[in-house]
């Protein structure tokens, strides 16, 4: 079954392609083929009162491996919290694992602003917690910085025992420019020694993590560092393409691999799943649309594994489509997924860089260069951003979406309002298309003027065909040549250039709005969040009405037969209705762009009609 995330994106792509195709031929619809996805095919209806615990696949145990320690854990449990202007982190001595990771603000070379959980309002602003409550409640806990080895007893030991903490205080406050190293150490009678050293910097989202894991004085081979499960904004009520669940992302063999729990994994009867990617791994992490945690090992790893589990949760009522909204058939639950990355590391004290922060393009592009220098190989964390689930369209959307992000950031810096920035951007872009729209109008107008003559020629050709006149007859060839000349004189397809230029921009703008951290929670008039749907759905209906006006007053290809005329009238109303369905849950920022673009197009067409009025063919009445 295809996930709602992919369905929403596929619906948008279908609608965008149809909008373009309609201008070429009203009589055909070509919906793009959805890419094959690894659908969840097993036990998707399995529901349980309690969520089954993940069961990692352990290698067979041998007598020579470390047996489970029978000595009691005498180290007292305690937690330490690190506070900086950018984040607040709490690490538990049990397993030396992160139990809380709050992003306080986003700070990039181009912007700085506080960050809050989804649904935040002026009166109620919840902190942005990246650690899942579900993951924290599991036994064992599925939280960051666990270790996995080929020996399950050893794995349990290093993740369940309390470590000694080097810092005496329970809270460490880092001021600007400060940093702090905190060591967690564990020594067991079985000969196991573990040391996890964290280095936190007040002014950076990147922490250093070095891990030493020895057994009888020797580093334990095949040690894996676990990132996750499901780092992201866990205040989201329900997920769709615009508010995706956390996904695993890895740079493997020069390519970017993405695995979302909702459609990449195939789950067994216990709601567990796993898969892996072979190849050289430069980095791997877990994140949602706007936040992520990624680990960059000191040396490239070979292969990476992903594990996931699924569970059902109750939500606030929501409507996935306009039909549910009309029928008031609200959904009150959804299936969610916990996704964890198993990244091989060297347990010899080598430093693994851990980025935990926002997926702001300007921030990620700023950390790429220093990371590259520190690890000695190219690192592009900007690839954490999902510019498209479709690899065939990503090379188009990414190069266009990035300049759009810069443009919106620039206009927002002037206006201090992203809604106004989107309107200014839309107006300027459509102004650039005005000469092409004028040319389009002339082309269609000439084609319309030739329509009666064209119909007369077609009728003559049909009469000759009924009389059995062959196509190579001089009379038939004369009529065909005349028809060809008239078609070339006013070729309507040339007037589609404005839409051809708008098509990639529309897809790229759609991408930019859904990945821009600055658009997230940006308000405009009655819209509380331009990255989310209009809660009152006013903009969706205004968009559909503006699309009808734009199509109704824009010159179209000449229609000769009554069937073509009927088809054109149907499309004028059918396309907006179809787009209303497609764009029902779309970000209001994208709808604002398209709505205002339709208004600008309508205004331009009124100007063009007035400018072209004196050029109406003789013998016709103006108007």
> Structural class, from helix and strand content?
alpha+beta
**What is the number of E strands?**
21
Name the beta content range: 15-25%
State the shape: elongated
Runs in which pLDDT lies below 50 for 5 or more consecutive residues are 1-8, 22-65, 615-623
Count of DSSP helices?
Answer: 13
The main pleated sheet reads as: 14 strands, antiparallel
The averaged pLDDT comes out at 82
Q: Taking Cα atoms only, what radius of gyration do you get, to the nearest Å?
A: 30 Å
Percent of residues in helices comes to: 25-40%
Tell me the span between the first and last alpha carbons: 53 Å
Mind explaining what this structure looks like?
- Strands 7, 8, 10, 11, 12, 13, 14, 15, 16, 17, 18, 19, 20 and 21 form a 14-stranded antiparallel β-sheet that branches.
- By secondary structure, the chain is of the alpha+beta class.
- The protein contains 13 helices and 21 strands.
- Helices cover 36% and strands 24% of the residues.
Label this structure with key terms.
single chain; 623 residues; alpha+beta; 13 helices; 36% helix; elongated; disordered C terminus
Brief summary:
The chain is of the alpha+beta class and 623 residues long. It has 13 helices and 21 strands.
Write the topology of this structure.
Blueprint: H1 4-24, E1 79-83, E2 87-92, E3 97-103, E4 105-108, E5 111-114, E6 128-129, H2 133-137, E7 146-148, H3 152-160, E8 164-165, E9 171-173, E10 179-187, E11 192-201, E12 206-215, E13 218-219, E14 223-227, E15 247-252, E16 255-260, E17 272-287, E18 291-296, E19 301-318, H4 322-327, E20 331-345, E21 348-358, H5 361-375, H6 394-415, H7 418-432, H8 434-466, H9 474-489, H10 497-515, H11 538-553, H12 562-582, H13 588-612
Helix pairs in contact: 1-10, 1-12, 6-7, 6-10, 7-13, 8-9, 8-13, 11-12, 11-13
């Amino acid at each position: 079954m295809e996930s709602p995330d992919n369905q929403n994106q596929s619906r948008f792509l279908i609608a965008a392609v149809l909008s373009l195709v309609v201008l070429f031929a009203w009589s055909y619809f070509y919906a793009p083929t959805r890419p094959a996805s690894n659908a969840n095919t097993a036990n998707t209806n399995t529901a349980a009162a309690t969520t089954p615990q993940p069961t990692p696949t352990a290698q067979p145990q041998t007598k020579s491996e470390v047996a489970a320690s029978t000595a009691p854990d005498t180290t007292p449990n305690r937690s330490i919290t690190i506070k900086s202007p950018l984040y607040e982190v709490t690490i538990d001595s049990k397993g030396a694992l992160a139990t809380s990771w709050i992003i306080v603000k986003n700070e990039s070379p181009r912007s700085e602003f506080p960050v809050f959980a989804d649904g935040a309002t002026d009166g109620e602003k919840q902190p942005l917690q990246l650690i899942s409550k579900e993951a924290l409640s599991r036994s064992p806990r599925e939280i960051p910085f666990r270790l996995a080895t080929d020996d399950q007893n050893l794995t349990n030991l290093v993740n369940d025992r309390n470590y000694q903490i080097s810092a005496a205080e329970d809270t460490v406050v880092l001021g600007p420019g400060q940093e702090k190293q905190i060591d967690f150490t564990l020594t067991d009678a079985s000969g196991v020694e573990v040391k996890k050293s964290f280095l936190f910097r007040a002014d950076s989202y990147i922490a250093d993590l070095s891990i030493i894991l020895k057994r009888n004085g020797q580093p334990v081979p095949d040690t894996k560092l676990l990132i996750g499960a499901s780092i992201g904004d866990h205040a989201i009520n329900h997920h769709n393409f615009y508010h995706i669940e956390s996904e695993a992302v890895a740079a493997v063999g020069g390519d970017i691999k993405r695995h979302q729990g909702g459609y990449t994994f195939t789950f067994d009867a216990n709601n567990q799943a796993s898969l892996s990617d072979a190849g050289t791994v430069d980095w791997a992490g877990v994140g949602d649309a706007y936040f992520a945690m990624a680990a960059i090992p000191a040396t490239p790893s070979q292969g990476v594994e992903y594990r996931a589990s699924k569970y059902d949760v109750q939500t606030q009522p929501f409507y996935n489509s306009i039909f549910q909204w009309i029928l008031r058939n609200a959904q009150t639950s959804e299936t969610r997924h916990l996704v964890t990355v198993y990244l091989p590391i060297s347990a010899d004290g080598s430093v693994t860089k851990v980025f935990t922060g926002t997926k702001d393009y300007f921030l990620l592009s700023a950390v790429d260069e220093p990371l590259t220098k520190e690890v000695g190989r190219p690192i592009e964390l900007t690839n954490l951003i999902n510019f498209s689930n479709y690899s065939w369209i990503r090379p188009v959307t990414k190069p266009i979406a990035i300049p759009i992000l810069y443009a919106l950031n620039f206009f927002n810096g002037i206006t201090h309002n992203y809604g106004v920035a989107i309107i200014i951007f839309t107006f300027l872009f459509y102004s650039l298309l005005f000469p092409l729209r004028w040319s389009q109008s002339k082309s269609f107008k000439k084609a319309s003027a030739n329509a009666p003559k064209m119909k007369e020629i077609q009728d003559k050709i049909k009469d000759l065909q009924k009389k059995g006149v062959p196509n190579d007859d001089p009379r038939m060839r004369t009529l065909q040549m005349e028809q060809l000349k008239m078609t070339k004189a006013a070729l309507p397809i040339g007037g589609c250039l404005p839409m051809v230029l708008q098509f990639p921009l529309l897809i790229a703008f759609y991408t930019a709005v859904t990945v821009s951290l600055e658009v997230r929670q940006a308000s405009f008039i009655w819209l509380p969040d331009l990255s989310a749907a209009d809660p009152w759905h006013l903009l969706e209906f205004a968009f559909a009405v503006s699309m009808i006006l734009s199509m109704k007053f824009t010159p179209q290809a000449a229609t000769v037969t009554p069937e073509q005329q009927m088809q054109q009238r149907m499309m004028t109303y059918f396309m907006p209705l179809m787009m209303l369905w497609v764009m029902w849950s779309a970000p209001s920022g994208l709808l604002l762009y398209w709505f205002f673009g339709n208004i600008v197009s309508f205004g331009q067409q009124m100007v063009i009609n007035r400018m072209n009025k004196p050029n109406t063919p003789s013998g016709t009445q103006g108007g």
